[in-house]
Amino acid sequence: MQRSVEGQPGSPVNYSCTHSKLNLLLNVNIYSSASPHISLLNLSKNREFRVFFFSVSKVTSSNNRHRPGRYSFLIQFYAVTTASSPMSASKCTRLSGALVKQLLDSVDSILFDCDGVIWRGDQAIPGAPQVINLLKEKGKKVFFVTNNSTKSRKMYADKMTTLGFDVKEDEVFGTAYCCAVYLKTVCKLEGKVYLIGSDAMRQELEAVEIQQTGVGPDHICGKQIDWANVPLDPEVKAVVVGFDEHFSYMKMNRAMQYLSQRDCLFVGTNRDTRLPLEGGKAVPGTGCLLRAIETAAQREAQTVGKPNHFMFDCVASQFGVKADRCLMVGDRLDTDILLGSNCGLKTLLTLTGVSTVADAEAHQKSGCAERQGMVPDYYVESIADLIPALQG
To answer: For the chain, where do the domains classified as CATH 3.40.50.1000 start and end?
Structure first.
């Protein structure tokens, strides 16, 4: 199937289409005539069809680098029919008994979210280290995918080792790392980043030889006319937003001034609006900071974290992970499970974190195609429920 898409440079374009039994919603980010980036935002869950990949080629361009115009691209979708199986007959099924072994035998790779899945705060979920270590002993590839941008891969690996997990640094895919990879490999950024984020993000950017400015406090001074004319680094070619404990009005203003330049890229780590804590407490998440800057700049950011498929793309490209032989395990329906649905993975909800079975059933009964992507294939009380099958 081929479709032509037009869009304004530097701005996302939502594009929907229907092909046979596939309902697609695409996000087109047109950075330049040479490097359009298209993300599959949503694929209505259908057991007969899955989209494996799509390619993009330029058709026409009515602009140059410095003068915005419109681009037209040809999108080629590739879909395949997949045979149904007993395991895919129903959704939101409690995983127990012989079904556990059947599921594990059907996958070679497993992606785990971290907080609420393998640990809470600084404590491992009971049985979680044993599950991870047993899976590896059984020859499974195990990876960790988290939207938390406050730690580098090394910091996560060190924490996991301390908690008793057998883990290597290159098995960890956080948004700090994935954001750096995205800028380097997809955007092919040449220039600096204005970073609203953590020191861990700075480390990951520098690891791929991208310089940044912005980490740390940025206190307000002067009057409004001074804010509108705040000094800008001419080498900055992208604004990147992650979690930043020093977020301030001046940082939002500085980001807005950079983003007024239409060829300045705009990338966010994730859109999680709340960070759940112990005892039912929560604090604002990165999504709140990102939304504030999007509102001020009147632009929409491209995000790399879950549920965007780019995080899975990072794992798949580096380790040869195949979507139809991969399981996503998480505690949040709107990030973990939706990532799995968007990428054609099997999905398992664990009830040790944020979402509940009632939440999943509400999505399932809603009749809304978009919400079906947040319905897991299976659920367990804890990933420790997998231990008997792994020991058998």
So the answer is: 86-147+306-391, 176-303
CA 377 to mean position of chain CA atoms: 20
If DSSP states are collapsed to H, E and C, what string results for the chain? Answer: CEEEEEECCCCEEEEEEEECCEEEEEEEEECCCCCEEEEEEEECCCCCEEEEEEEEEEEEECCCCCCCCCEEEEEEEEEEECCCCHHHCCCCEECCCHHHHHHHHCCCEEEECCECCCEECCEECCCHHHHHHHHHHCCCEEEEEECCCCCCHHHHHHHHHHCCCCCCHHHEEEHHHHHHHHHHHHCCCCCEEEEECCHHHHHHHHHCCCCEECCCCCCCCCCHHHHHCCCCCCCEEEEEECCCCCCCHHHHHHHHHHHCCCCCEEEECCCCCEEECHHHCEEECHHHHHHHHHHHHCCCCEECCCCCCHHHHHHHHHHCCCHHHEEEEECCHHHHHHHHHHHCCEEEEECCCCCCHHHHHHHHHCCCHHHHCCCCCEEECCHHHHHHHHHC
pLDDT values of the chain reduced to their tens digit, one per residue, 392 residues: 344 444 444 444 444 443 333 334 444 443 333 334 444 433 333 333 333 334 333 333 344 443 334 444 444 443 333 333 445 458 999 999 999 999 999 999 999 999 999 999 899 999 999 999 999 999 999 999 999 999 999 999 999 999 999 999 999 999 999 999 999 999 999 999 999 999 999 999 999 999 999 999 999 999 999 999 999 999 999 999 999 999 999 999 999 999 999 999 999 999 999 998 888 889 999 999 999 999 999 999 999 999 999 999 999 999 999 999 999 999 999 999 999 999 999 999 999 999 999 999 999 999 999 899 999 999 999 999 999 999 98
For 378, phi and psi rounded to 5 degrees?
-140, 165
pTM above 0.90, yes or no: no
Which residues have a catalytic role annotated? 113, 115
> Which CATH number is 176-303's, of 1.10.10.60, 3.40.50.11500, 3.40.50.1000, 3.40.720.10?
3.40.50.1000
Topology (CATH) of 86-147+306-391: Rossmann fold (3.40.50)
